[in-house]
Amino acid sequence: MKFSYVNPTQIFFGQGQIQAISSAIPADAKVLMIYGGGSIKSNGIYQQVSDALASHEWMEFSGVEANPTKETLDKAVALVKQHGIDFILAVGGGSVIDGSKYVAASAHYDGDGWDILTGAHQVTSATPLAAILTLPATGSESNSGAVITKAETHDKLAFLSPFVQPKFAVLDPDVMKSLPEKQLLNGVVDAWVHVCEQYLTFVHDAMVQDGYAEALLRNLKELGANFDNRDNDAWRANLMWTANQALNGLIGSGVPHDWATHMLGHELTAQWGVDHARSLAIIQPSLLRNQIETKRAKLEQMGRNVFNLPQSDDLALKTIDAIEAFYHSLHVPTKLTEYGDDKQAAIDKVISQLEKHGMTNLGEHQAISIAHSRDILNLAIA
Ligand code: NZQ
Ligand code: ZN
């Protein structure tokens, strides 16, 4: 274990915290508020944010779509440059926050912002930004990552930069009251897989990271089991905080990471528009079955410590079955069915995109080759 850890995002957690932005944003800042398709207009969040910004100079950009595209976001980049914006306030879920990170970094670059995603441009500065989270799932509100789509070519790529880490994030669980059931379920599943990506690898000695990861998984399992009681302050607060902790850098410090499920899942979203969390539920059980030998010890540990399963020769397999049953209990499918009618062509398409994106050696050992990915897709696509 050797690592350097800081999470510099200040968290304002709890009911009524949106008003904290009045003093958290510098008084003389020229603010651009960025949001999505308009849910914040109908659930009252837009009004709360406008009230809190009453003494600031601000303007807005709306229409950031789920799985945000560079085509849409480039219009916001132009706005930031044209109006000399010096603070970005993202109000939304992972898509709006990720999109705002792209805008913040691209506004400090003269070329095409997509260069940031391809690696042709390294981010060295960005417009400061903050987030008001409306959908707990991605952890984007207090991490340095963003995932952006180029609609023209169906490419969905990620970038990481400390310069786009939000200065602060407001986590008011009341914003979840207007979330459709499907998005709440997506949040449980995405957070669950984030923990798995940093935990289901190989055995190491990091007791804090493993123990905390298991606590977060048990929380999510319990929140899923109590889904019928979701209209409840404690349920909402616990999901919001658990999803945040799942991807704020702490449990991933100094331990091996996987992320293969995410890389394959992103290709399903880019091709067929599958919701991010649902793409993960489709890939992960098949990937775990394919990788059972390399992950056996950690799967057994998860079986004992998260699912309370007894020791047995097939404990690893039983743990994968329990993960899949967890998704099914949430009515989240684990096979891709909406890809047209030619399974082979669908697999070939994903494989060629993985190759194009350099995703040819995935997983904690960089041992998930294109041949493995093909086998995984063959299992995951109905
Ligand atoms: O567009 P609006 O009106 O905001 O509606 C959204 C959208 O339709 C709606 N919604 C959000 N909050 C709501 C609400 N509806 C009613 N009430 C509310 N309070 O929910 C829909 C989905 O929103 P979206 O932001 O797309 O969902 P999510 O938070 O799951 O974000 C998914 C994106 O994040 C990326 C994914 O790839 C995907 O593009 N990820 C980002 C990560 C990161 N930055 O660390 C990690 C993740 O693994 C993930 O890849
Ligand atoms: Zn995710």
Give an account of the 3D structure.
The protein is an alpha/beta fold and 382 residues long. It has helices at residues 21-24, 39-42, 45-52, 70-83, 94-106, 114-118, 181-199, 207-225, 233-246, 260-272, 276-290, 292-305, 315-329, 343-356, 370-380; strands at 10-13, 30-35, 57-61, 87-92, 129-133, 145-150, 155-160, 168-171. The strands form two sheets. Strands 1-8-5-4-2-3 form a six-stranded parallel sheet, covered by helices on one side. The protein has a two-stranded antiparallel sheet with strand order 6-7. Strand 6 (145-150) and strand 7 (155-160) form a beta hairpin. Helix 8 runs antiparallel to helix 9 (233-246), helix 11 (276-290) runs antiparallel to helix 13 (315-329) and helix 11 (276-290) crosses helix 15 (370-380). The radius of gyration is 20 Å and the shape is globular. The model has no long low-confidence stretch (mean pLDDT 98). It binds 5,6-dihydroxy-NADP and zinc ion (ZN). Zinc ion binds at residues 138, 190, 193-194, 262, 276. The site of 5,6-dihydroxy-NADP has 32 residues, from helix 5, strand 6 and helix 7.
From the spread of the alpha carbons, the general shape counts as globular
CATH overall fold name of the largest domain: Dehydroquinate synthase-like, alpha domain
Largest sheet: 6 strands, parallel
Q: Which residue ranges are poorly predicted, with pLDDT under 50 across at least 5 consecutive positions?
A: none
Q: What's the level 1 CATH class of the largest domain?
A: Mainly Alpha
Q: Summarize the amount of helix as a percent range.
A: 40-55%
List the bound ligands: 5,6-dihydroxy-NADP, zinc ion
Cofactor: Fe cation
Organism: Vibrio sinensis
Pfam family, one: Fe-ADH
Domain Alcohol dehydrogenase iron-type/glycerol dehydrogenase GldA: 8-173
